[in-house]
Design goal:
Blueprint (H helix, E strand, L loop, with lengths): L18 H11 L8 E6 L3 H4 L10 H14 L4 E9 L12 E2 L11 E2 L1 H5 L4 E2 L3 H13 L5 E2 L16 H14 L4 E5 L17 E4 L2 E4 L5 H7 L4 E6 L5 H16 L7 E4 L14 H14 L3 E3 L5
Helix pairs in contact: 1-6, 3-6, 8-9
Organism: Candidatus Avacidaminococcus intestinavium
Family: Belongs to the isochorismatase family.
Protein name: Nicotinamidase
Amino acid sequence: MYPNFYKQEAAAQLFLPRYELIAQEVVAAKRQGDLGRDALFIIDAQVGFCMPGANLYVPGAENDVARLCEFIYRNKQSLAKVICSLDTHYVYQIFHSAYWRNEKGEMPEPYTIITYEDVIENKWQPIANRELALDYLRQLEEASKYQLCIWPYHTMLGSVDHALQPILSESVFYQALFSNSPTEFILKGEEVLTENYSVCAPEVTVLHQQDKKIAVGEFNMALVEKLLKYDRVFIAGEASSHCVKATVEDILAVIKKTDPRAASKLYLLADCMSPVPALPGADFPQMAEEALQKFAKTGVHVVCSKEF
């Protein structure tokens, strides 16, 4: 059922891709007729989240990835398209320590929460664009979205932890060759002044500076429309409490306005995603579980990968 090169125990290992070996196995697999009309949407299944020891490792993510790889191999005949998002960051962004200082010139520790009031009271100050940073914090709080969290540096463009988890990289390469359809990659998270949990849009799309409006992103409607053209859209990735949750919420917001029945096209592979561990005052696992329950009530299928 699985290619000879695939070894489940490699899910937590870093290694170079074996392109030629994979290509040979694709030839041997011999596609049977036409492909199905399903898509697989993989959200941020990167080394920075899935490799034990990584700065923002999500516990259990390496096992999620192994199950996802096996899902791909079992369903290679039905998967017409694989789309992967890649969380993509730089040093000086509003959610990184380097962007902030206190009165002593110290940077905040990872997982520090910074509020609008903190900046007004001079507890923390941005190194640049104070007015825009304040507007960002104000909008977050008014919308009751996630508070600004200082995340550990992670998935920096050009770094090892930006790449797909190696075992998964091989699986999507295999599927691209088998389906004659290249994997599509979407970079997200590059804006300096906003977080970007959802693949569809950043947390804030417009900031205000005096009488000026400054665009810092837009909603990726083309992505949603592309996904909904498929018969079924399987969704997996990390983390279920953040980027997966936010992305599905955005897709469902579009579906609600256009065709609520389309929610039934979405299949969340619940055993191929895990939440960020709980922090003081933030029970992320509970948030993830509540989100899955909420999605199911809209018609989304919350399933186990082994059902397919």
